[in-house]
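W.,

You were right to be curious about this one. When I first looked at the sequence I had no strong expectations either way, so I just let the prediction run and decided to look at it fresh. Below is the sequence, 432 residues in total, followed by the output.
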Amino acid sequence: MKALIFIIFLLLSPSLWAYGIFVSDQGIMKGDRSRALITILDQGLDMIIQGHYEERSDRLLWILPMPNVQNLEQNPVLAKSIPSQTLEELAQLSDPLFEGSCNDMPNQQQSNASQAFMGGMSSPIPVKFFNVPALEDQQFEQYFTEQNLNFSTELQDLQAWALDQNIMLLVFELNTSVISNNPKDITVQIRFNTDTATSPKVYLKQFANALSGKPSDIVFWILAQDRYRANFPTVEAEFDQIKFTSADNTDYLQNLDAQAFQQQSQKLFVEYANEINPATLIDPTLIALRSENNATFLTRLRGRFIASALRTNAAILNFRAESNNQIYQRNHRIAGFECMALVEDQGRNDMSLMDMDTQSLDQSMVDVDQALPSSNGIDYEILFTDAEVSQSPKKESSGCHQSRFTHSHFDHLGLFFLILFGFWLVYRKLNR
């Protein structure tokens, strides 16, 4: 497969709902999710970005942003496609995990809040760059003309915005027709030098004529020596209203949307913040990045942005280190699904166990009763005391069996001793 990449830096279009813009012969394509790892280096940034698109097309452009590099010959930008294993490992390490509970007791319901990705293309992709001087010379517009593609109003707005913000533009051109089993995902790694590496920026600009009601779902990981936050509210989610909606699903994302709406979606949620243990890492790329910058901390942030916010205040997102490296775990216990039904089922199970115990006891009594010998046609039943079991003739009763002694044997003995006592009295009187 031969593919041509052009680097353009804009991140998100509301038609795309992902990191960057996918453009085909038919125009801007739709997607709904993206994720990116930002690694803070001594003199620059390393970014691994995965995008997703919904529609198939033989010709596909992916437009991405980065800070402008004025002299590309002296400060080359490295860009290549890679497998998605690096981000997959980060997802397994940091995806929010939920455990259901009823009456504060675990009920074995489990779920996570992972994003759905299907891998990605990993074939080598050539790169072409459009920095600010190239944009000023209209080279970006000329490229679309040479490719027989429409330089639409959105792309014209993008070029003007990039020049205004001093942003370099990139375009990845993918020949998807030669890719078998196209997964509709692509992962790239981009590295460049910048003086603002400790406060990285990402660009989430959108266009007014591509609005949609569905929030974009973007996950950022920051690998550094500190915990990171964004330039607008960066908070831990409130879990008192989050619950299981089935045995293995929750309303976590819907609740994030409701919480983010309080600030017109201009909010990032902390999903994981913890020290990173090098011994637990598996992916070679992730191991190399952590070793290169001696990273000790991993932060995961999630945005649920609506288009109107991304056209204005959230068009450019700034990250910065926090003053403390407070740990935030990914495990959460939330309200389980159909707890009342589970309680009723448990109650029915308990009653069934009681019935089984009663039946077992009755059967045991029958078995012992049958094992006792009969005497003179009298059947014996088991009579219980605290420490022993005795036998007595069985009598019919309309009530429950109770523990008791019978007195027929003691009546005969009493008469015998009374007679003896009478003989003793007669004998004593005769011998006076």
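Here's what jumped out at me. The chain has three domains: 4-337, 342-371, 374-432. And, maybe more interesting for your project: The CA atoms of residues 362 and 400 lie 12 Å apart.

Coffee later to discuss?

I.
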